[in-house]
Amino acid sequence: MTVNRLTPLLLLLALSACSTKKVTPPKTDTNSTDTSLIKNNIVKNPALANSTVINAGVPHTGVVNRPIYHAPTSLMTSPPINPMLGRAIIEQSSSTTTGGVGGYFAGNYKLINFIDRMCNEYQFDREYLYQLFSSAENVHQFVEEYRAKSNTNSKPQGKWDRYKGMFIYERNINRGVAFWEKHKNALNKAYQQYGVLPEFIVGILGVETAYGVNFGKRRVIDVLTTKAMLPNRRESFYTTQLEKFLLMTRHSHLDASTLMGSNAGAMGYGQFIASSYLEFAVDFNNDGVIDLWNAEDAIGSVANYFARNGWNRGIRQVAVRAKYRGSRFRKLKTGYKTKYSQYRLRKKYKITPRTRLSYKGPVSLIKLPKFSYDELWFGTHNFRVITTYNHSTFYAMAVFKLGEAVKARRYGR
């Protein structure tokens, strides 16, 4: 009996003498869930995801420019506070010690290994990353405030009417007119350089952030760290976004600890995720900094995104309403992925455009379900390009319709 009791103890002592530099994972909580919100789609962004969380109608509360750092990207100890972009940063908890991560993510093996990789591959300052991640918080522990919206429209609505109503409303149209007037030179420059008409850029920015009214309510570092380092079915994607975010902030001299974004980590007027920021964002106002919280840089970046994803400047029409027999359309598959010959639609199914369509290529059939009937639209090549920003037929139509509404209001049509 004595030998049997001693044997496990001796084995334990022998194992404790071994050491390894690799951090092994602790047991994970199998009950953890991903509480990220669905991008109305993003996202964007495409995006959108590109996935983007859309929150229109939130009142604008202050300065929109985020702090820019032109100093070397070594350890930052006391960066300034910006009232729009976040609270006092690098608030180290009492558990933070030099040489390690404190706060909520202290001891997280994935984060420790991630920091090692960022230091080894990209030469980040280790103490800076320790300090940055010590300030990170778990966004899952915060409960979103729910505010019920009263429906002042007594008319019964279909699925499209409910979706459209989130983005195309009087206040947002008026914001779009004011934005267009204020930034008309940048919008015209974007058209000259990239071939994207102003109304479609205006439509994107109005759907994504209501022209800067709502850039997002979460610190991006909190969102990306939570989704990358805690159990999440998309943790690999968010780990990549966290890596790109750190590279992005270093390259553009941005303060990683104060930037605010969506619940999916999308940023700026156009709600770019970090990888899209690195690939498509441009310094459109030529001030030496790529800043998507700056309207001009955002305008150029959205135009560049479309151009890089196949926008055809020779196609001025994005969508044209079609007519068909009946009130509900079920004859053919619909959606932005569909492509039909206009000749075949006309000859075999008697589906024709209601107004002149100069575009001669294959069209997508777009169905917009209203309460008592379905609207049917032809989507051109450039309509499909808009869906690369956010893979949703409704999203692309909202961008198109909002842009057209702003244009009509601006020019009195």
Please provide a written account of the structure.
The protein has 413 residues and is mostly helical. It folds into 2 domains: 36-91 and 135-141 and 154-313 and 397-413, no CATH class; 319-379, no CATH class. It is 39% helix and 6% strand. It has 14 helices and 6 strands. The strands form 2 sheets. It has a 4-stranded antiparallel β-sheet, sandwiched between helices. Strands 1-2 form a two-stranded antiparallel sheet. Helix 5 (170-182) packs across helix 7, helix 6 runs parallel beside helix 11 (295-308) and helix 7 packs across helix 11. The longest helix has 19 residues, at 393-411. The model is unreliable at 1-24, 26-98 and 146-151 (pLDDT under 50).
What are the defining features of this structure?
single chain; 413 residues; mainly alpha; 2 domains; four-stranded antiparallel sheet; two-stranded antiparallel sheet; 14 helices; 6 strands; elongated
Tell me the span between the first and last alpha carbons: 95 Å
Which strand order do you get reading across the main beta sheet?
A: 4-3-6-5
Uncertain segments of ≥5 residues (pLDDT<50)? Answer: 1-24, 26-98, 146-151
Number of helices: 14
Mean pLDDT across all amino acids: 81
Helical content stands at 25-40%
What is the helix/strand order?
Answer: HHHHHHHEHHEHHEHEEEHH
Let me know the number of strands: 6
When the domains are counted, the total is 2
Content-based structural category: mainly alpha
Question: Could you give a short account of the major beta sheet?
Answer: 4 strands, antiparallel
User: Which radius of gyration do the C-alpha atoms yield?
Assistant: 25 Å
**What fraction strand?**
5-15%
Note the overall shape. elongated
